[in-house]
Write a structure and sequence with these properties.
Radius of gyration of chain A: 23 Å
Distance between the termini of chain A: 38 Å
Structural class of chain B: mainly alpha
Helix content of chain B: 55-70%
Largest sheet of chain B: none
Oligomer: heterodimer
Number of helices of chain A: 6
Shape of chain A: globular
Structural class of chain A: alpha+beta
Largest interface: A-B, 42 and 55 residues
Order of helices and strands of chain A: HHHHHEEEEEEEHE
Number of strands of chain A: 8
Number of helices of chain B: 8
Strand content of chain A: 15-25%
Largest sheet of chain A: 6 strands, antiparallel
Helix content of chain A: 25-40%
Number of strands of chain B: 0
Radius of gyration of chain B: 17 Å
Order of helices and strands of chain B: HHHHHHHH
CATH architecture of the domain at 78-233 in chain A: 3-Layer(aba) Sandwich
Shape of chain B: globular
Distance between the termini of chain B: 57 Å
């Protein structure tokens, strides 16, 4: 190691190296990083068999056109699919979910067990926003949970937490909300979504707050929930 | 550098990056997010990495820049008061490994003392002393001249020694 101050006895350096605890990456982080470095989508590789490949390409294009609707789910925008799934969760919460805040304390352990997501801390509410429901769910093949909040004007906000392969959050569309920079999406069908990663999990918050003022409120809700919720993968 | 080779080499620095991230964010969950973001960015900008240069230092640079851009809370940063130190709560680390009482106490003193040093001084100290990076690499990561790095490390050590005396760190001022 470098001794930056050549004339100084390096007791402090020794102390730091010897006594300061090191924090190696936990296994879940290693898995998440490996998934991020090796995305599922196979990248095209140059082939030495170009002429036969060209012939095959024509046939493949016909097949692709025929199978396009099915293939789209495999290769499309994961954020888009998760967003649609979060909107479905929102609809489910509005229409059918059992939303009784008094049932929550008893329900949460079961929800955590079934979802594979642990809530070390969770935002349960304040004067503006109240946690009223929690259910295990599966979104786009990922296990997770939906937390249902309702604000004082009756708007439902659903916070979907899903495990599974890491989803890179694109740079475009990110907004600064306090100290975080999640992705903000405004859907054409009347929903706003905020997407971010937390503790190796992908999180989507969906609401029907879409006007400019309402989106500002939605961002505040995000900041409250994000600041007071701490997650980890259960297994 | 080929993508596969880049990935393989980048992964070797995961533990070191996470360690620095913990000390930067003081929060286990945020540290993990910061490291993930660092790798996503490193991969995105891997074409800018110059083979033959120090990948470890490059990754640390991305991590610190990401932290400064997205994670740093100005109100969390200890502002230097008149005495050169700032007050604040002890750092909270999650998933801390089990330690025996005495060594844990010593570590906590050291951690608390380290936390009281501003990030601009703490990070070069950690990069040089803990991670063993050269002053040139630290200067590149910190985006400042080598002379400034030397000065910051010197001052950080000086401050750390002073703080540890206050805490009664074993081997310094603890009564027999």
């Amino acid at each position: 190691m470098t001794n930056p101050t050549d004339n100084e006895p390096d007791e402090t350096g020794h102390l730091l190296r010897g006594a300061l605890p090191r924090w190696p990456a936990p296994a879940r982080l290693r898995r998440a990083v490996m998934e991020a470095l090796n995305p599922v989508e196979a990248r095209s590789r140059p082939s030495l068999w170009l002429p036969p490949a060209l012939a095959a390409l024509a046939a493949a294009m016909v097949m692709v056109l025929w199978l396009a609707p099915a293939l789209r789910r495999e290769t499309g925008d994961q954020i888009e699919y998760l967003s649609r799934a979060a909107i479905s969760e929102h609809a489910r919460a509005v229409l059918w979910s059992d939303t009784r805040a008094d049932l929550l304390p008893a329900a949460l352990p079961r929800v955590m067990e079934e979802s594979g997501v642990t809530l070390n801390w969770v935002f349960t509410g304040d004067d503006d926003l109240q946690l009223i429901g929690a259910v295990p769910t599966v979104v786009e093949g990922r296990r997770g949970m939906s937390l249902v909040y309702r604000d004082r004007d009756g708007h439902t906000v659903v916070y979907v937490i899903a495990s599974g392969p890491i989803v890179p959050i694109p740079e475009r569309g990110r907004v600064q909300i306090e100290r975080w920079r999640p992705l903000l999406r405004k859907e054409s069908d009347g929903f706003s979504l905020i997407v971010w990663r937390q503790a190796g999990l992908v999180c989507v918050m969906a609401s029907d707050l879409v006007s400019e003022g309402d989106v500002g409120r939605f961002k505040q809700y995000f900041a409250k929930v994000r600041a007071s919720t701490e997650l980890s993968k259960r297994y | 550098m080929a993508d596969d080779e880049f990935r393989q080499q980048a992964l070797q620095h995961l533990d070191a990056l996470h360690n620095l991230a913990v000390y930067l964010t003081r929060n286990g969950s945020e540290a993990e997010d910061l490291v993930q973001e660092t790798y996503v960015r490193a991969l995105r900008f891997s074409h800018r990495f110059q083979p033959g240069t120090h990948l470890r230092a490059w990754m640390f640079q991305i991590l610190r820049n990401t932290f400064l851009t997205f994670y740093r809370l100005r109100e969390r940063e200890p502002a230097l008061g008149e005495a050169g130190v700032a007050d604040g709560p002890a750092p909270m680390f999650h998933d801390a490994p089990a330690q025996d009482g005495e060594s844990q106490s010593a570590h906590m003193d050291l951690e608390v003392a380290l936390r009281r040093i501003p990030e601009d001084f703490r990070t070069p100290l950690m990069l040089a002393e803990i991670e063993g990076l050269s002053l040139d690499d630290v200067a590149r990561i910190m985006d400042c001249p080598v002379g400034t790095v030397k000065s910051r490390i010197f001052r950080a050590k000086e401050r750390l020694r002073s703080l540890l005396k206050d805490y009664g760190q074993p081997g310094h001022e603890r009564a027999p």
